Structure to design on (900 residues):
């Protein structure tokens, strides 16, 4: 059947021309190809003697002999020089010069039986170029270090090079006529087949197509003498996993390899597609290196993330959960953290730590495959229990278990998974676990377990090193959190032990107080409050704040609170109390050495206190670092229920707030003064009359200031909340805390609220006595009548005796007018005033002394007694408990006899 030649015919590259010689030896036929290739038109060739027309003159004789032999019927092949007389389409730049043509002459006969010849002409220059190209192509194809495949238009292999044959085994001819399915797995072969078809149809090349397949192991691959053998990789192509690759395949088994294949379409000289060429490079090693580099980058990224996230909290559980959030699922599928229960409870060396058998508490668990805890290893289930360990549960690992061994040796252990026939809930889903001890400061504090489920790569050496690094970072942070929690709890216990116990009581005041410590994320502060009963049914209200945090701040707060109570019981004026406190604070800062509270940067509490603090910092920064100084703010108020007047003194603290019935809350204008510990400035007093029903509030800055809102806004909100607090005092206190933002946890909060209801007039007896002897009997008479009116007949005898002693002392040792006052509230208080400044001193009388026993008698019969200075002299007082029917009152006669 007649048909066209297939693409890629040799005639696409070698153009053959023809002409014929007649019986006379002249040219009688000249093909168009000859005219085109040789550059000689037919008009210049037909009828001419080819020798005289085209052959150089010096070769004429030899050429005539050759033509004669051809016409005699002899075939001839040889090279013939010729001169081109024109330039055809294919004429080169040297057209017209002498050329060489290879001529094949075949004898023929004419119709008349005469001898003639048919000549085929090939341009030697084109032929030599094709030979060179073929040699170069053969060298490139055969000697290429990459696999070379040629596919025809039917996508069948026409040729492969020796490199390809060396890798897949067998001679190169073995693959001729085959296809991708003969050397690739089915899925990969179909991918390559589709790519080949697309390249053949569209002409668009495909670059670096990744293919995975298997090749014979090196021991079974035949040697090839023509090309160097490809060294087989030491490990097969790993599956997608963050873990290390598996060991190399045993000799004789198939090796898993990865290739990068580039495809491009081939065209013949006529421009027709003749097939597809495939160039394949073995990238198994490069891929492995890329995977290792990617794994190293992932590990570094994981460590960077761990460094950025772990340790941001001082909470144990939060730190443990953060570790697991970093590890799951980036590093493993399941993880858990166990910490020694004894360390969590404050025991520095719980029994069993040395051998790993001590009790542990599970503080965190995370899973990417299940929300329920799994017993992931053979040591995941505690002794005597069949279920998994829940978060918060206390357990211990068997002595011979890998987990106990990891705790005992402080070395990470790789634990293989359970057999598949076990129940899934007991860990059959896990096939590799890393038990890593958490070591901080050479002490094992717990154990973290990382587990991978089936389908993931088992843990290797690199994974172990990464896990140890993660556990070490978390261990230090967890140990820091543990130590901080221990100090925080101790400071909190100390601080709360120094605050007033229970609900304080005071004459003429209803008291409600609240103390809210900061969160565990912040250190314990130095906020405190106190309610101190003073003589004469007066009450001192104190709120203060030590600038600093931590245990030292709590200790400083305790020292200052104790000093306040001591100074208050001396019945000093508020300004004098703060002046003495200032001296004490400066003394504490001057003798503490290096273990002093670090001063917290003072906050802007209000316009005046803020200026006071700024000046305090300037004054205190002369020669001493602020970190070496005790600084505190304090407001001290003394309320007298008889006069219903309250005296305030302020040392850099926020101003008190007062709310009168039916009125809005107001900030009292109390001079702020300097913070305690600065020194050099006096404190001023402000006296305010408080009507019955008025509400007084003292507080610290944590109540009205936080990062979310400024101080002024917090003060306005506080005043609004107090204005709406027309309810029982305890409910009003809760209302204020609920209305304000008290859950920020940035600072401690202390709130002291007092509602005023002064002593009624009928509960006060007040008389002036002349400085004469008969005033003693007058005093006894007045006391007897007042107690009878109050229904306290049981106290008449004792009161008369003690009043007589105090008035007598005022007459003997004092001068000026004498004042007697009886006050009835929760107790009976008797006060005797005189104009003398000398304070009475109790002494022990000798048996022979006739006097000196009056104050001893007062001490025996009263619940308490004392004296205090007044602006015009002194006041001596005693206090008697009210009869309750159950407690017998001391007998004055017995008390008198006991003095002798």
């Amino acid at each position: 059947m007649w048909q066209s030649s297939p693409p890629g015919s040799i005639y696409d590259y070698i153009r053959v021309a023809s002409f014929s010689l007649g019986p006379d030896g002249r040219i009688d036929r000249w093909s168009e190809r000859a005219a085109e290739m040789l550059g000689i038109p037919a008009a210049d060739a037909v009828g001419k003697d080819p020798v005289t027309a085209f052959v150089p003159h010096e070769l004429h004789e030899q050429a005539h002999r050759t033509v004669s032999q051809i016409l005699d019927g002899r075939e001839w092949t040889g090279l013939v020089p010729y001169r081109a007389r024109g330039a055809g389409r294919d004429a080169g730049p040297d057209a017209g010069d002498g050329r060489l043509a290879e001529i094949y002459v075949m004898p023929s006969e004419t119709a008349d039986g005469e001898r003639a010849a048919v000549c085929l002409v090939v341009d030697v220059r084109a032929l030599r170029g094709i030979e060179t190209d073929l040699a170069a192509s053969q060298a490139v194809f055969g000697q290429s270090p990459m696999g070379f495949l040629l596919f025809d238009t039917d996508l069948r292999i026409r040729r492969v090079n020796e490199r390809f044959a060396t890798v897949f085994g067998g001679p190169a001819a073995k693959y001729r006529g085959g296809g991708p399915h003969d050397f690739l797995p089915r899925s990969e072969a179909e991918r390559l087949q589709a790519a080949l078809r697309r390249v053949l149809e569209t002409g668009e090349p495909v670059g670096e197509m990744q293919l995975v397949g298997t090749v014979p192991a090196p021991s079974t691959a035949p040697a090839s003498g023509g090309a160097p053998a490809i060294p087989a990789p030491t490990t097969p192509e790993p599956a997608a996993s963050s873990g290390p690759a598996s060991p190399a395949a045993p000799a004789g088994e198939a090796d898993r390899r990865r290739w990068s294949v580039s495809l491009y379409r081939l065209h013949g000289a006529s421009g027709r597609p003749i097939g597809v060429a495939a160039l394949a490079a073995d990238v198994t090693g490069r891929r492995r290196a890329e995977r290792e580099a990617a794994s190293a980058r992932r590990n570094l990224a994981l460590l960077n993330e761990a460094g950025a996230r772990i340790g941001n909290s001082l909470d144990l559980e939060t730190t443990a959960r953060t570790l697991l959030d970093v590890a799951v699922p980036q590093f493993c599928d399941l993880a858990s953290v166990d910490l020694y229960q004894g360390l969590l409870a404050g025991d520095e060396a719980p029994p069993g730590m040395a051998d790993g058998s001590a009790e542990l508490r599970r503080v965190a668990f995370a899973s990417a495959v299940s929300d329920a805890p799994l017993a992931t290893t053979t040591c995941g289930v505690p002794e005597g229990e069949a279920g998994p360990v829940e978060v918060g549960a206390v357990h211990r690992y068997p002595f011979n278990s890998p987990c106990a061994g990891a705790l005992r040796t402080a070395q990470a252990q790789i634990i293989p998974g359970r057999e598949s026939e076990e129940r899934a809930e007991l860990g059959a889903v896990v096939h590799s676990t890393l038990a890593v001890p958490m070591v901080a400061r050479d002490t094992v504090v717990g154990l973290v377990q990382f587990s991978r489920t089936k389908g993931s790569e088992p843990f290797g050496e690199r994974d172990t090193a990464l896990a140890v690094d993660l556990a070490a970072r978390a261990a230090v942070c967890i140990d820091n959190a543990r130590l901080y929690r221990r100090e925080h709890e101790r400071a909190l216990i100390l601080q709360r032990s120094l605050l007033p116990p229970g609900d304080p009581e005071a004459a003429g005041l209803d008291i409600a107080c609240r103390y809210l410590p900061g969160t565990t994320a912040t250190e314990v502060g130095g906020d405190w409050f106190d309610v101190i009963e003073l003589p004469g049914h007066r009450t001192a209200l104190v709120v203060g704040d030590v600038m600093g945090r931590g245990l030292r701040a709590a200790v400083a707060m305790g020292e200052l609170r104790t000093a306040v109570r001591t100074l208050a019981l001396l019945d000093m004026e508020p300004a004098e109390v703060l002046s003495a406190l200032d001296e004490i604070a400066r003394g504490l800062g001057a003798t503490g050495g290096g273990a002093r509270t670090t001063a917290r940067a003072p906050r802007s509490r209000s316009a005046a206190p803020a200026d006071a603090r700024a000046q305090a910092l300037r004054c205190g920064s002369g020669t001493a670092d602020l970190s070496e100084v005790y600084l505190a703010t304090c407001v001290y108020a003394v309320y007298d229920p008889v006069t219903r007047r309250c005296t305030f003194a302020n040392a850099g603290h926020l101003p008190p707030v007062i709310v009168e019935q039916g009125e809005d809350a107001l900030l009292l204008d109390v001079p702020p003064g300097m913070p305690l510990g600065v020194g050099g400035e006096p404190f001023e007093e402000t006296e305010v009359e408080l009507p019955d029903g008025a509400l007084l509030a003292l507080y610290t800055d944590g109540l009205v200031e936080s990062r979310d809102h400024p101080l002024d806004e917090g003060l306005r909100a506080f005043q609004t909340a107090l204005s709406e607090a027309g309810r029982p005092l305890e409910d009003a206190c809760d209302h204020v805390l609920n209305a304000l933002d008290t859950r920020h946890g940035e600072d401690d909060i202390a709130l002291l609220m007092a509602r005023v209801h002064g002593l009624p007039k009928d509960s006060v007896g007040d008389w002036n006595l002349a400085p004469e002897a008969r005033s003693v009997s007058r005093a006894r008479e007045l006391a007897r009548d007042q107690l009878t009116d109050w229904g306290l007949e049981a106290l008449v005898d004792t009161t008369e005796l003690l009043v007589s002693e105090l008035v007598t002392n005022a007459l003997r040792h004092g001068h000026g007018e004498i004042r007697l006052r009886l006050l009835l509230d929760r107790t009976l208080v008797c006060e005797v005033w005189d104009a003398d400044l000398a304070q009475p001193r109790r002494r022990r009388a000798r048996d022979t002394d006739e006097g000196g026993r009056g104050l001893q008698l007062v001490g025996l019969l009263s619940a308490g007694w004392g004296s205090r200075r007044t602006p015009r002299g002194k006041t001596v007082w005693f206090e008697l408990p009210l009869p309750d029917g159950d407690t017998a009152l001391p007998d004055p006669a017995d008390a008198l006899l006991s003095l002798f």
Summary: The first strand starts at residue 16 and ends at 21.
